[in-house]
Amino acid sequence: MPLIDLGIITLAASLINGYEIEKTPEDKLKEAFDYYRNEAAKSHAKSDTNLFLGKAGGIKEGAEILGVDISEWETLKNH
Predict the structure, then answer these.
(1) How far apart are CA 50 and CA 43, in angstroms?
(2) Which of 6, 18, 36, 71 is deepest in the core (most CB within 10 A)?
(3) Can you tell which superkingdom this protein's organism belongs to (predicted)?
(4) What is the per-residue pLDDT for 1?
């Protein structure tokens, strides 16, 4: 919701109590990608590593299909 559409009470309450910016779908995809990459790095079993890397790879491929700019995402490599 644009700030112009907020009432003065709502705006004041947000400034006093804090507010959270809603993540974009692209941000949510990147967050999921990073989560699975980190889980792959932490896992000890090769099967778990492959599972997490597969999930990260699927998210990255889906993002590419949807036209999401993934040029900033780290390169997906096998450990």
Answers:
(1) 9
(2) 36
(3) Bacteria
(4) 59
Give the pLDDT mean for 4-26. Answer: 83
As a whole-number percent, the residues of the chain with pLDDT over 70 amount to 89
Question: Domain residues of the chain, as ranges?
Answer: 23-79
Element (H, E) at 33: helix 25-42
Cβ–Cβ contacts within 10 Å for residue 41, how many? 11
Q: Which of 36, 48, 46 is nearest to 74 (CA)?
A: 36
Length, in residues, of the chain: 79
In the numeric block, the tokens 């900033």 are attached to: 72
Contacts of residue 32, defined as CB under 8 A and 6 or more positions apart, other chains included, come to 59
Q: Tell me the whole-structure pTM to 2 decimals.
A: 0.68
